[in-house]
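Workshop exercise sheet. Pairs work together: one partner reads the sequence aloud, the other fills in the structure field after running the prediction. Swap roles for the next sheet.
Pair: D.N. / O.F.
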Amino acid sequence: MKTTGIHFISRAVLILLAFSCMSAWAAERAKTYHEALEKAGDEGVLIYLYGPDWNRRSVKMLESFWQKNELERAAGNSVLVALPIYQRPTDEQKAKQEEIQSGFPLPPPHRYRSNPTVVMLDKTGRTYAILSGNDDLGDGLSGSKACQLIQKNKALLAQQLELMNKAEQASGLEKAKLIGQASTLGIDPPHNAAEQIRTLDPKDESGYVRRLNYDPRKFQEEHKDAKSTELESPVLKIVNDTAYSPLQRQETYCILIGQLRRDGAAKNVLRKHLLAMQQIDPNSMYGKITPSLLTQWCGDPAPKTTDKDSVSKKKHRKRDK
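Structure field:
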C-alpha cells in the first residue's frame, strides 16, 4: 500500500502540533514571588513552601515533586516559585527568604497546617486553593495526588473566571447567582463576593448569602452547651435547606449526631440520622465513613472490603514510593 504525499504532510503537521502543544504547557519558574506576579497570566502562580532547616520531607519533595515534569504538566502556564520557610534562620537565610517572599503573605494558621504546602494564586495574587498535608499531597514523595488536585483546581479557576466575566455583563439577581456560582465551585470565592451578592440580592432569594456566610464550626461553638433535644431543630433547619452546600449540611448534621451519642441515644435513633446524613452525599468523606460508624455505634455488620479496593490501595502505595 502506497503512502501519498498528503499523508506525509499530515503526519508532519501532527508532529509540529505536538511539539507546539508541549512547549505551550511548559510552566515558567521565577526566583521571587514579585517576579512571578509580574509574569503571571490567567493561570496564575503556584508557590511551594518548604522547611529547609526543619522539614526533611518537604526538602526531598523539592526534587521528587516540585522539579519534576509531571508537576510542570499539571501547572500548565502557571508561574512556579519555591519559597523556603526557615525556623531558625541565619541572617543570610532570613534575607534570602524575605527576598523570595517579597510581599507574599503566608496562609492563616487554620489553613497552613504543615510543610510541604502548595499555595495556588490567581494573577492578582488572590489565593484560591491551598494543598497541604497527606490528604492533598499523598503519603509518599511523588506528589502525584497534588498534581491531580492542581489540575482540578486550575480548571475550576478557569470556570470561575468565565462566570465572573458573565457576571460583568449581568445585573440584579442574575448577577448575584453568577457570582454565587463562581463562589461555590470548591475553590476560594472571588474577592468581596459575599458583599456583592448581599447588595445585589438583599432578600437572599438565591440562597448564596446564607451559604457563603455559614461556618459549621461557628455554629458548633454557639451551641456547645446544647443538648440533642435543643440541637435537633436548628440543625435540621440547615440540613434541609439545599441553599447550603452538601458539605455544610453534613458537617452540621454531625454536630447533632455526636451530641445524640453523648446523650446516650438509642441505636435506632443514631442509625436513622447517620443514614440521613450519608444520603446527602454518599461520596464525601462523611458519606464514606458512615458504614464504619454504623458498625461501631449501632452494631451493624462491618463493611466488606472488596479485592478491588485492596488492589487499588497497593497501587497507590507503590506509586508514591
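Discussion prompt: The longest strand covers residues 45-50. What would you look at next?
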